[in-house]
Amino acid sequence: MSARPVAGSARAAERSHAARARRRSLVVALVASLVAAASASCSLRTESGEFGELPDKASFIDNKVSLFMEVRCGGLDCHGQVGRPLRIYGQTGLRLKAREDGLRDNSPTTDDERTENYRSVVGLEPEAMAECFESKGEKFATFQLLKKPLGVENDGIRHKGGPVLRPTQSDPGWQCLYGWVSDNVDAAECERASKITP
Amino acid sequence: MRIGRRPGRSGRRGAAALVFAGAVLSAIAAAMLGGCTDPVRDAEIEALGPEEPGVSPNPEHRPGQPCLHCHSQGGPAENKPFAIAGTVFETDQPGSKGADAIYVQFVDSAGGGPREIPQTGPSGNFYIPLQDWPDLKYPVRVGLYQDLNAPPTVIMKSLINREGSCNFCHRPNLADPTDFEIDDSRSSAGQIYMRSGS
């Protein structure tokens, strides 16, 4: 007599356990599909370049924006370092490839190095750059490429190297960089900004 | 009249545990404060190795090494802090002698310079004590002069942006570099020298 209720409650417990397992599987499947959907949409957005229109590589190189950044930003003690964000290569700074004998390579900046510089610059904050570019320079309130070089001293944000540009007509460096990201670059300003005078 | 109650055995154990925990925390805090240095710099200093046998710290010691690793706040020689220091070699050849009696003239972004123009010693070393240039404003330009009344022999092509150790970027050229040193040479401008060739 006492065995029956025990067997009955065991079956009930089994049914309840099975129901719990089904519910758990359902929840896991639901969460997994949500995660999959979220990651799929993230990768799709990046792969399809949905962050907007960016200034192109040719304008970066041909208008001497790269040259300006090589000279003014790419010192070996600043952005010409492997471990630092916004890595810049150039003739007088970090080289992309070493010479086989280990001596300094003083040859001019290569196309590969300028391409890497372009990637560094547009890869810093692509969405913010696109917003600035598409608005012709109207929107750059938090865009680090423009705000950092101003430093807090010139209404920008903290830059370890201090303020290196001023947001004025008379600063060719600002005219070069701001002009490029606002689709209005003047190569002559970039050339002026890349000259170091004694 | 009883105004307090002697703690029971469990109360005494609790108080003892509190005292023990406090002591352990204090010891951990003291250990952390005692070892509160820059681990990256510590490792770099360690990698420089010991002094040459029979040499004690003096103005000619450790030519080619980054002086401000030690001669700056938090370094083992912080009692003799430098603003800028480095080494000039006679030639660009590995193992070249240091260039003696060379004037190293700096101009900062405010048009200022050190109280005295530093001159290299027999090892090629030169240094500017921090108290001789307390208001240095980066970036800085530099030229090497054999005679201060003549044009400079060498002018550095790029800017010094923030690094006071010239040898941080200008590492000595090596006769037989390893694969690692060859790759690492991408980050070096090579040793500072007065003329090319042997």
How would you describe this structure in keywords?
heterodimer; A: 198 residues; mainly alpha; 2 domains; 8 helices; B: 198 residues; alpha+beta; Immunoglobulin-like; three-stranded mixed β-sheet
Give an overview of the whole structure:
The complex is a heterodimer of chains A (198) and B (198). Chain A has two domains: 1-50; 57-193, no CATH class. Chain A has eight helices and no strands. Chain A has helices at 3-47, 57-62, 65-72, 111-124, 126-134, 144-147, 172-181, 187-193. In chain A, helix 3 (65-72) packs parallel to helix 8 (187-193) and helix 7 (172-181) packs across helix 8 (187-193). The longest helix of chain A has 45 residues, at 3-47. Residues 1-5 and 40-48 of chain A have low confidence and may be disordered. Chain B is an alpha+beta fold and 198 residues long. Chain B has four helices and six strands, in the order H-H-E-E-E-E-E-H-H-E. Chain B has a three-stranded mixed sheet with strand order 3-1-6, with no helix packed on it. Chain B has a three-stranded antiparallel sheet with strand order 2-4-5, with no helix packed on it. The longest helix of chain B is centred in the first third of the chain and has 26 residues, at 9-34. Chain A binds chain B through residues 71-72, 75-78, 80-82, 92-105, 160-162, 164, 196, 198, and chain B through 92, 107, 138-139, 141, 143, 155, 157-163, 168-169, 173-174, 177, 181-190.
